[in-house]
Design a protein that fits this description.
The complex is a heterodimer.
Chain A (H helix, E strand, L loop, with lengths): L4 E12 L2 E13 L3 E5 L6 H9 L7 E3 L2 E4 L2 E2 L5 H7 L4 E4 L3 H4 L6 H10 L6 H14 L5 H5 L8 H13 L5 E5 L7 H18 L2 E6 L2 H7 L2 E6 L2 E7 L9 H8 L23
Parallel strand pairs in A: 3-9, 3-10, 7-8, 8-9
Antiparallel strand pairs in A: 1-2, 1-4, 1-5, 5-6, 10-11
Chain B lengths: L5 E10 L6 E11 L4 E5 L6 H9 L6 E6 L2 E2 L6 H6 E4 L3 H4 L6 H11 L5 H11 L16 H13 L5 E5 L7 H18 L2 E5 L3 H7 L2 E6 L2 E7 H6 L5 H9 L20
Parallel strand pairs in B: 3-8, 3-9, 6-7, 7-8
Antiparallel strand pairs in B: 1-2, 1-4, 4-5, 9-10
Helix pairs in contact in B: 4-5, 6-7
Chain lengths: ~280, ~270
């Protein structure tokens, strides 16, 4: 059986006047119908990895890979038309902040219906019905009312649920969620994660969760990749944070203040240039 | 008991008029002793930042009284208030003037308060936050996030305040940088006998830095507790308990489990 996603030796480079910046430096992994977490600090290349998979790398960035395949389709060789038709229908992405990623001058309903009809030939009425059902699935209590609202009328948690609804209405097989909860309160965060978790389980999707929050990702995902300076430095099984070997991962865990057993001063992460090699 | 440094009684802040009035703060009272550290926690919209804005006069008080060192604080605030109370903001990418050098940024409070020997004060302030004099003539865009937050802290400390108001000082920073800034804040507190009021949504950060904390919800104080109670889980209200549970990471509890906190679907 072919895995849902195969990534082998993926590089993302940005040629700039001051020289080339290599944001992602040769990472490889495969994804089945599972929850995979990618964790790293700012600049580690985690978001660029997600964008490269979808083909959303900003210009003048260049993506190279020995193999980048989605459900057996070679994405590196695929024409832009094919990638565009895959994007949004079979593979999709949830962005960080609903305040910036939803169109401020369209109602929630219009946006969800637009993304549905871009990929499915259905009547307006059917699209509306599907949108309502999808909003209900992400536990929006009065979908009728929410459909007519504009993004600024939504709370952060609702906005994020609307975005998830918009991305999942086409029934994708791969969902990349880039910091889906970091703009949200801790209490709402749990709720959004629970919705994601349930939808992924019910639909048998593959999920890549990108985040800087190691503890959250480790408690949510089946597997966690830790990225540093564009490379994967460690792969961890879910809930096995205490078995982390790499000094970077251990340093990241150590430098968080903890409710149980706090230490003063906090241990500080000392970076070894060898990690980036 | 010695006079508290800050005494806030029945603070209330309202925004809007008539039917649209929103009580951003409703009857919030607390005291802060010299050298003490108080945490304010709550969800977004709970009014935790409004407390700091009301203290500094950035949000108008519609009720209640405020005393600094036993003396009533007038509105608008006088100069001597700001020599005693300074603030560090959440996002160091937004709180530093992009076209001012570090030197200009740090010189401004000194010029406003007519404090002489600016140059030696600036170099000393940079040293206090762990940056060398070479950073003096850089622009904010030439600094990392952690270095910028250090500059923002230096700007607050250069007037030798007694109280520093910290509005989510580390939430825009990476975990490893957060640890450095938290350590710096602890060292500075010890060195200068500072009192802190820390606003944060991260319970672990609040418990790390503060002995005492207030939980706010929709502008009201719903619980006053201690870092110790947070650590051993002996908090009184369900709401705080739910926040505590949510901060522990994701727990898979089966598809029909109720959410940990009431849905805010309005």
């Amino acid at each position: 059986m072919t895995p849902l996603l195969e990534v082998e030796d993926l590089h993302v480079r940005f040629p700039l006047t001051e020289g080339t910046i290599e944001a992602v430096r040769g990472i490889s992994f495969t994804l089945g119908r599972e929850r995979l977490g990618i964790v790293g600090e700012s600049g580690s290349g985690k978001s660029q990895t997600g964008r490269a998979i979808l083909g959303l790398t900003a210009r003048p960035g260049e993506v190279t890979a020995k193999r980048l395949a989605f459900d057996g389709i070679d994405l590196m060789a695929a024409p832009e038309r094919l990638r565009r038709s895959l994007r949004g229908s079979r593979m999709t992405m949830v962005m960080q902040d609903p305040r910036y990623s939803l169109n401020p001058v369209m109602t929630v309903g219009q946006q969800i219906i637009e993304s549905y009809r871009a990929h499915k030939r259905v009547s307006g009425r059917d699209a509306r019905r599907a949108a309502l059902a999808m909003l209900d699935e992400v536990r929006i209590t009065a979908p009728d009312r929410v459909m007519a609202l504009y993004p600024h009328e939504l709370s952060g948690g609702m906005g994020q649920r609307v975005m998830i609804a918009m991305m999942l209405i086409t029934g994708p097989e791969l969902l990349i969620a880039d910091e889906p909860t970091s703009a949200l309160d801790v209490t709402v965060r749990g709720e959004v994660l629970r919705i994601l978790d349930q939808l992924v389980a019910e639909r048998g999707m593959g999920l890549i969760l990108i985040s800087h929050d190691l503890e959250m990702v480790a408690s949510f995902c089946d597997r966690v990749l830790v990225m540093y300076a564009g490379k994967i430095v460690e792969e961890l099984a879910s809930g096995a944070l205490d078995q982390a070997r790499h000094p970077y991962t251990r340093g990241l865990i150590g430098c968080l203040p903890k409710l149980a057993g706090d230490s003063h001063p906090l241990p500080v992460l000392t970076r070894d240039p060898a990690w980036a090699r | 008991m010695a006079t508290p440094l800050i005494e806030a009684r029945n603070l209330s802040v309202r925004f809007g008029v008539g039917r649209l009035t929103v009580a951003a703060l409703d009857d919030v009272s607390f005291t802060l002793a010299p050298g003490e550290s108080l945490g304010l926690v709550g969800e977004s919209g709970s009014g935790k930042s409004t407390v700091l804005r009301a203290l500094t006069g950035l949000a108008p008080l519609s009720g209640g009284s405020l005393k600094l060192g036993g003396v009533a604080v007038p509105t608008p605030r006088r100069m001597n208030f700001f020599t005693a109370v300074q603030m560090v903001f959440q996002d160091p990418y937004a709180s530093l003037h992009p076209r001012h050098t570090v030197d200009q940024i740090l010189a401004e409070p000194l010029a406003i308060h007519r404090i002489p020997h600016a140059e030696t004060r600036i170099v000393a302030a940079l040293r206090e936050v762990g940056l060398g004099p070479s950073y003096r003539f850089r622009y904010p865009h030439q600094l990392s996030g952690g270095q910028r937050q250090r500059i923002a802290i230096a700007r607050a400390l250069i007037l030798r305040p007694k109280v520093v108001l910290l509005d989510e000082p580390t939430s825009a920073l990476d975990a490893s940088v957060q640890a450095e800034i938290l350590n710096l804040l602890e060292d500075l507190r010890r060195a200068f006998g500072l009192a802190y009021i820390l606003v944060s949504h991260d319970l672990a950060v609040v418990a790390h830095l503060c002995e005492r904390l207030i939980v706010l919800r929709q502008g009201r104080m719903i619980e006053e507790t201690t870092a110790g109670a947070l650590r051993d889980g002996s908090v009184k209200t369900d709401y705080t308990r739910a926040m505590l549970a949510a901060s522990g990471g994701f727990t898979r509890v089966g598809p029909t489990a109720p959410p940990t906190a009431p849905l805010r679907n309005t």
